[in-house]
Write a structure and sequence with these properties.
mainly alpha; two-stranded antiparallel sheet; about 70% helix; about 0% strand; binds adenosine-5'-diphosphate; binds magnesium ion
């Protein structure tokens, strides 16, 4: 299966819808261990991305993701704005000039997405961040594609892994970002960024499943 630029645009639209629907939940999660702005920040950013989509229709996959990253950097703010913004930009850089994307290229793009966050956030898995959803998703997608699983099923497995990874942040003590200021008191709460990351991957899985 091939991913088209139209599917990427639908993914971004679906992500914006999902973030908008879950805005209060994301903000409530951030209220427990941060400053109660994660949902509001991301909703503002992805609504801005949606407004920019008509101007992106005739562009290649790389341009679409890079432009999305720039827009997130300039509109989201907080820690997650630069982190997600860099992730989308890095993913876009792997897809320059591509009108269609193969499953292998999508895997490379997701790897660059995750690496962008790791580098910028100086973070690893297990530190109660968005990486706790993204790294299991990446590992799962890689294994599924290596086992010749078709793309929709592979992405569904990846989204499930992201969700499980987000749930698994609950007992962790935060070691990065604002939640780390709470030390041990950050344990017992789900990480907002891991929750939004799982949502972004679900939107991708659903978009590709719908197009299959
Ligand atoms: P802020 O903490 O500045 O208010 P947000 O509330 O928008 O930013 O985002 C918080 C989320 O960002 C956290 O839940 C966590 O997942 C993620 N995060 C924070 N710092 C880092 C980091 N250094 N590396 C990776 N992710 C991080
Ligand atoms: Mg916050």
């Amino acid at each position: 299966m091939i991913v088209t630029t139209a599917m990427l645009l639908n993914w971004l639209r679906r992500t914006a819808d999902g973030i908008h629907t879950q805005c209060e939940l994301l903000t409530a999660l951030d209220a427990a261990i941060g400053d109660a702005d994660h949902g509001i920040n991301l909703d503002r950013g992805f609504q801005s991305v949606v407004h920019s989509l008509p101007a992106l229709t005739d562009h290649d996959a790389g341009h679409i993701l890079k432009a999305t990253g720039m827009r997130l950097i300039s509109t989201v703010g907080g820690a997650s704005g630069p982190l997600y913004g860099t992730a989308f930009r890095r993913a876009g850089m792997t897809l320059e000039q591509r009108q269609t994307v193969t499953p292998e290229e999508l895997l490379l793009a997701l790897r660059a997405f995750v690496q962008g966050i790791k580098t910028m956030g100086q973070a690893e898995q297990g530190q109660k961040t968005m990486l706790d959803a993204l790294i299991p998703a990446l590992v799962t997608l890689e294994a599924a594609l290596a086992a010749s699983t078709d793309l929709p099923a592979a992405l569904e497995q990846a989204a499930l892994a992201a969700n499980a990874g987000a749930e698994a942040t609950i007992p962790l003590v935060a070691q990065r970002g604002r939640a780390s200021y709470l030390g041990e008191r950050s344990a017992g709460h789900k990480d907002p960024g891991a929750t939004s990351a799982a949502l972004i991957l679900y939107a991708l899985a659903e978009t590709v499943a719908e197009a299959a």
